């Protein structure tokens, strides 16, 4: 059985806590949906913020909604170098001890002491897909992408949950290196 997975390329983006949304956009502010994402209930918001590091900044970083428990900026390794932060490769949500950044919105700014990461490559599996493929949550997988610059990604983390839709997430550096774009497919090979 072929184990094909759709690929989503994750450009730099930020997840904000409701507290930080209100500091950046005003008391009681709620994000508005620009377009839905591959995972149910998640969306790219119309709103953007600027982020500033020790060496540089990005003026329009897309916010992904809904609000999260903790604020987190996800960047590629190239982005991290450009703004001068040492962002560790981590699973989304694991921000302890990571780099900090200043976030600037239309109503205010916030400096976070930690929260900047390079998201580890991963595949979201619905529990039924994982069961059918014999995949366990947190299992490390090998995934092949084809094409002119085809390669094998190792250490792809399986994330299994009943609310997930099957989708592999890589960052822009990985996509550029392999020639992969949104909507391409990859094959789980081990």
Short summary of the structure?
The protein is 15% helix and 47% strand. The protein has 190 residues and is α/β, with parallel strands linked by helices. The radius of gyration is 17 Å and the shape is globular.
Q: Beta-strand percentage? A: over 45%
| Global morphology | globular
Main-sheet strand order equals 1-13-10-12-11-14
Low-pLDDT ranges: none
Mean of residue pLDDT values: 96
Determine the fraction of residues in helical runs and give it as a percent range: 10-25%
Query: What Rg, in angstroms, do the CA atoms define?
Result: 17 Å
Describe the fold and architecture.
The chain has 190 residues and is α/β, with parallel strands linked by helices. Helices cover 15% and strands 47% of the residues. It is built from four helices and 14 strands. It has helices at 18-25, 77-83, 127-133, 172-178; strands at 4-10, 13-17, 33-36, 43-52, 57-68, 72-74, 89-90, 99-104, 109-119, 122-125, 140-145, 151-160, 167-171, 185-188. The strands form two sheets. It has a six-stranded mixed beta barrel with strand order 1-13-10-12-11-14. Strands 2-5-4-8-9-6 form a six-stranded mixed beta barrel. The longest helix has 8 residues, at 18-25. The mean pLDDT is 96.
């Amino acid at each position: 059985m072929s184990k094909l997975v759709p690929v989503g390329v994750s450009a730099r983006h930020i997840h904000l806590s409701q507290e930080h949304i209100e500091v950046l956009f005003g008391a009681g502010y709620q994000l508005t949906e620009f377009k839905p994402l591959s995972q149910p209930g998640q969306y790219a918001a119309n709103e953007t913020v600027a982020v500033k590091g020790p060496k540089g900044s990005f003026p329009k970083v897309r916010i992904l909604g809904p609000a999260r428990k903790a604020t987190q900026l996800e960047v590629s390794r190239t982005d991290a170098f450009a703004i001068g932060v040492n962002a560790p490769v981590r699973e989304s949500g694991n921000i302890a001890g990571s780099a900090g950044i200043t976030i600037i919105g239309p109503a205010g700014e916030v400096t976070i002491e930690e929260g900047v990461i390079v998201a580890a490559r991963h595949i979201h599996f619905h529990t039924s897909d994982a069961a059918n493929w014999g995949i366990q949550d947190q299992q490390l997988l090998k995934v092949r992408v084809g094409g002119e610059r085809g390669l094998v990604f190792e250490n792809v983390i399986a994330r299994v949950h009943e609310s997930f839709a099957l989708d592999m997430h890589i960052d822009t550096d990985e996509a550029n290196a392999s020639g992969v774009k949104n909507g391409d497919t990859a094959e789980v090979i081990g």
